[in-house]
């Protein structure tokens, strides 16, 4: 008793919940840092074993048994990604507080389109929008999601299959700057200091192994 159903599931098992992104096999997707990719529905109560949740408790064995071989989480693709993670400044892509991609922003995304066309083995990429801390949490979350959706929309308009792109907004929850970095700054100086936090990150989530002939 006391162990929830979600905490007893392991990230290498097929996952049917809504707290984590899954690939076509139903396995939890991991990002470039080998962290389970959470969705906007994630809460601590939905954490699963292998993604931060505790392993289920087991009764002590009554007799000597061989050491347990723990299951190894299945990778979502080969170790070497087809292309490196892309981090785009929000100022390059959008006007202030807007989610419509500027012409110069589209030019920055064309290299990404080329990579996705060149490497069909990349089955899924994650497009994540981020904002700085100014403004309300709700407004920042909404803006970051709209910007991620705009990037996905542009890629799809260039012929990339919609099911190869997952868009998500993180709002101000994952800043690049540290507390105190911009202390005492105001106006344009503060905006410039917080610029690294306003970004769109694109990274490979699922890449299948390509066997050479």
TrEMBL record:
<dbReference type="InterPro" id="IPR006665">
    <property type="entry name" value="OmpA-like"/>
</dbReference>
<dbReference type="InterPro" id="IPR006664">
    <property type="entry name" value="OMP_bac"/>
</dbReference>
<feature type="region of interest" description="Disordered">
    <location>
        <begin position="166"/>
        <end position="188"/>
    </location>
</feature>
<feature type="compositionally biased region" description="Basic and acidic residues">
    <location>
        <begin position="56"/>
        <end position="69"/>
    </location>
</feature>
<dbReference type="Pfam" id="PF00691">
    <property type="entry name" value="OmpA"/>
</dbReference>
<dbReference type="InterPro" id="IPR050330">
    <property type="entry name" value="Bact_OuterMem_StrucFunc"/>
</dbReference>
<dbReference type="InterPro" id="IPR006690">
    <property type="entry name" value="OMPA-like_CS"/>
</dbReference>
<feature type="compositionally biased region" description="Basic and acidic residues">
    <location>
        <begin position="167"/>
        <end position="184"/>
    </location>
</feature>
<dbReference type="GO" id="GO:0009279">
    <property type="term" value="C:cell outer membrane"/>
</dbReference>
<keyword id="KW-0998">Cell outer membrane</keyword>
<feature type="region of interest" description="Disordered">
    <location>
        <begin position="1"/>
        <end position="21"/>
    </location>
</feature>
<dbReference type="GO" id="GO:0015288">
    <property type="term" value="F:porin activity"/>
</dbReference>
<dbReference type="InterPro" id="IPR036737">
    <property type="entry name" value="OmpA-like_sf"/>
</dbReference>
<keyword id="KW-0472">Membrane</keyword>
<feature type="domain" description="OmpA-like">
    <location>
        <begin position="81"/>
        <end position="208"/>
    </location>
</feature>
<protein>
    <submittedName>
        <fullName>OmpA family protein</fullName>
    </submittedName>
</protein>
<feature type="region of interest" description="Disordered">
    <location>
        <begin position="53"/>
        <end position="80"/>
    </location>
</feature>
<dbReference type="InterPro" id="IPR002368">
    <property type="entry name" value="OmpA"/>
</dbReference>
